[in-house]
């Protein structure tokens, strides 16, 4: 009798374990997801500086290794000089833009106030002599000059009071911006100091989740982040500095402000050529033809640089399309802030690469690797 009861309870316990076994992984996954969501919710006020610090750390990690070799293996010294380099490359341009706008707020306010009363000058004589379109351009030009443009500007240009309110609001948030910069630098120091441990943990997680493909995507994320960050930032710095030189040579009023607008436009993927082209038109009507020609030459060089310099820098690391960069930068900026300009294109590129891997479609990198392999085999 006892033997039968023991076998009955043993079989019931085994059946209970068997029936609970399909549910247990789901409950475990739900608990882990709940813990991760709670952790992210707790630290979400610090996510922007953490993401920004991680992006810069990934970008400048090769510099840390080189400096560590030069500085006799000292990681602390290498991290210190890398943080200084990050301040110069990533934070100093933003600080200069804030200082430039703060110093010229009166000039900008005066310019915006006088802009609605400004009228287009009379069309140049050579416009009317243009074949086919000259006769159509002159009436349209006169229509803008007399009615449409001043009326449009009066509705579009904000009042000085609203500009002052916006400036004071920006000045009030300057403290929070500086705090975010400081937290970003702290995040950089922590990440770079423990880089090997963090990298090992991420590799283990990626391998557990996706196997070989997960490890490959993690490596590709590092390379893509570095390429996009360097390409966008260096292109914006070089083009805005070059444009600033042209603005100074052409005698453009508030040239520093225009160069700052050019830098912001380059970072946001609008390019800097349109800023110099607008400056060329302004100088043509308000200054001498010689100054306008100087500005036009610089604008054409920057227009060529928009299509050449940034892709050249980025393609040293990864073959990513311009459309992915633009869409990712716009979407990342609206969702993650300034760090999203670099994180957004990386996420889109990794998603595209993962989908191509699942569907068996080769990416541009794979095609290039296959072509190079074929060339090597042919030469051999």
Automatic annotation (TrEMBL):
Species the sequence originates in: Bombella pluederhausensis
What's the protein here called?
AI-2E family transporter
Q: Where are the transmembrane segments?
A: 26-44, 50-67, 79-102, 166-193, 227-250, 257-276, 282-305, 317-343
What's this protein's family per the entry? Belongs to the autoinducer-2 exporter (AI-2E) (TC 2.A.86) family.
Question: What topology in the membrane does the UniProt record assign?
Answer: Multi-pass membrane protein
Instruction: Print the keywords alphabetically.
Output: Cell membrane, Membrane, Transmembrane, Transmembrane helix, Transport
- Principal location class: membrane
Q: Could you tell me the superkingdom of the organism this chain comes from?
A: Bacteria
The record's subcellular location field reads: Cell membrane
InterPro entries xrefs: AI-2E-like
The answer, when asked if Nucleotide-binding is one of the entry's keywords, is no
Pfam families in the record, alphabetically?
AI-2E_transport
Q: Does the keyword Transmembrane helix apply?
A: yes
